[in-house]
Design brief:
By secondary structure, the chain is mainly alpha-helical. It contains 17 helices and two strands.
Length: about 350
């Protein structure tokens, strides 16, 4: 699947209690010195190759995601993922909330919360109590806001799109920049993983299950492409989506003079249907080609040259926090890894 060269992460804002992991691929140190590697330089692909995609789907997804992840890359994924879910006006209304949503008031916290929930699911799999508690917390949150924004959480196809998008994200992203994409085994495992995740979510407005998940990975591909190609009324909130979601990665990691370049990178990696659906001006063909080539090189270096990490991204976070797994997952699910700033949005 994807392999990411190590990147340093941004320092948290003052209100954030959870320190962000600084060295994503580094071993925990002992006496100030890095500990010796416990695995071969390139071990993840070999382990995945030895697994069965139906029986071992959760382990394949886990290996592909939590070891090949870091804070910076998760934040980039946030900026190229979240905008897809708010192309319909009814979705944007519930996220932006007239300028009172967390994407305005606590943007970095919103990025961290999203990434940590996904890492819990990826580490433990759909059947684990930690995953179920995490999803249950989100179901309750969505139910709460469904009462404030009737109609925003009603559409079954929006839930399906979110699940199918996550299942196909890495494959489509790799193909978008000119790589082959995920192996057939990884595609099957991704479908097995996300079809089970879909059963954990509820329609927040009706309380019913999410229905109609596609019966194959190819079906997921067809669904997301059809959803993105659908013609909808013009998005009234495109400028706010640009400011709070598309530009979120650049604002977190780059000084102001370089933030337009970071935005161009995000725009170049977004699905074209999403850019069109939001009514935003796409990146120029030259800028898009340069960004996609650079990103392709970045992925190639991670896949072929940089050693695979021995320690997973969430494990490094727990070590820094000195929290056992249960305490950490409880904090993420309960929404209390942070001390809220005065007037800060709670969701």
């Amino acid at each position: 699947m994807l392999s990411f060269p190590g990147l340093s992460s941004a320092e948290p804002k003052a209100h954030c209690v959870v320190p962000r992991v600084q060295e994503k691929g580094a071993q925990p140190s002992k006496g100030g010195r890095p500990m010796a590697r416990t695995k071969p330089r390139k071990w993840i692909a070999k382990e995945i190759a030895a697994l069965d995609p139906v029986k071992d789907y959760a382990e394949i997804w886990k290996l592909a995601v939590i070891y090949r992840s870091n804070d910076t890359f998760m934040d980039l994924m946030y900026s190229i993922t979240f905008p897809n879910f708010v192309v319909p006006n009814h979705g944007a209304i519930a996220v932006l909330r007239d300028g009172k949503g967390k994407v305005f008031k606590s943007a970095e916290r919103r990025m961290d919360d999203t990434g940590r929930h996904i890492l819990i699911w990826s580490e433990y799999g759909p059947d684990h109590p930690y995953t179920k508690k995490s999803v249950d917390a989100l179901n309750k949150l969505h139910t709460f806001y469904s009462k404030k924004y009737p109609g925003s959480f009603r559409h079954n196809e929006d839930y399906l799109y979110t699940m199918c998008y996550e299942a196909t994200l890495f494959h489509r992203l790799m193909q978008r920049v000119g790589l082959k994409g995920m192996t057939e085994k990884e595609q099957i495992a991704a479908w097995e993983f996300w079809r089970r995740m879909a059963t954990l979510f509820i329609n927040a407005e009706t309380g019913g299950p999410i229905t109609g998940f596609p019966d194959s990975f190819d079906g997921c591909m067809d669904f997301v492409e059809s959803y993105e190609a659908e013609r909808r009324p013009p998005n009234k909130y495109a400028d706010q989506i640009d400011e709070t979601l598309i530009q979120a990665f650049g604002k977190r990691y780059f000084p102001k003079p370089l933030q337009p370049a970071a935005r161009t990178l995000v725009m170049s990696l977004l699905p074209e249907g999403t850019v069109r659906g939001l009514g935003l001006k796409p990146a120029s063909p030259v800028a898009k080609a340069v960004c996609r080539f650079g990103f392709r090189c970045f992925l190639w270096v991670g896949d072929k040259i940089i050693p695979d990490p021995d320690v997973s991204h969430p494990e490094l976070m727990r070590k820094r926090l000195r929290l056992p797994e249960e305490a950490y997952t409880d904090e993420v699910s309960d929404g209390v890894p942070y001390a809220p700033a005065p007037g800060e949005a709670t969701a």
